[in-house]
Each structure stands twice: as C-alpha cells, then as structure tokens.
Amino acid sequence: MRNVARIVETPTVTRKEVRPPDAAEARIMLKTARTAHPA
Is 17 helix (H, G, I), strand (E, B) or coil? Predict the structure, then answer.
C-alpha cells in the first residue's frame, strides 16, 4: 500500500518540483559518472 502511494504521488511531486531535484540529481550523477569513469 505504501509503495503504491509513493509511486502515485511521485510523478505529481516531481512535476511540481522538477528543478530543485534535477540539480541535486545532476550533481549526484556527475559524481557517480566521475567515480565510475575516472578520465
């Protein structure tokens, strides 16, 4: 039940707050990419 609620509420929250999480995720992705691909 909780998982379903989270999946249902996730798209709405993401759409309303697209920019703030995007920046955080972008930094995490960059850090992960650098760690995974040290070039």
Answer: coil
Number of domains in the chain: 1
**pLDDT tens per residue across span 1-39:** 555 555 555 556 555 555 566 777 778 878 887 776 665
Instruction: Quickly list H helices, 1-39.
Output: 2-16, 19-36
Q: How far apart are CA 8 and CA 15, in angstroms?
A: 12
pTM metric for this prediction: 0.33
> For residue 26, what are the domain limits?
2-36
| Residue 10 near residue 17 (C-beta atoms within 8 A) | no
